[in-house]
Amino acid sequence: MCNMQPQYGNLNQAHASRVLRNAFIESFAKSQLDDYEITKDQMGNYHVSESKKDSPTIVKLNDDSLNCFKEFIEGLSEKQRVFFGDETIFATVMNLWNQAHPQEDPTEGGD
Fold first, then answer.
1. Does this model's pTM top 0.90?
2. What is the mean pLDDT of residues 57-75?
3. Within its chain, how far is the Cα of 96 from the centroid?
């Protein structure tokens, strides 16, 4: 996911890319990078060793990163570029966003 973030774009894209890169990998301590066997090549792409590629990781999303991730998913979806293997995690993120931002019921409130 981190490697899918744009390297350049407008200011909003740059912000979202920085926020998501940080959430996905760049906030990891060196010991975490070593434990997960994550390396970064000269082009700035991250790689995980074959033996660790299916290791579960915990990604913590604050409201800003959750919003950025939602927009990232929606952008891929609009372009029909969602890889079927990512559907489960993307659906989970969208559910988290919906839980964090419940729609206001138009039948409630207002006298």
1. no
2. 93
3. 12
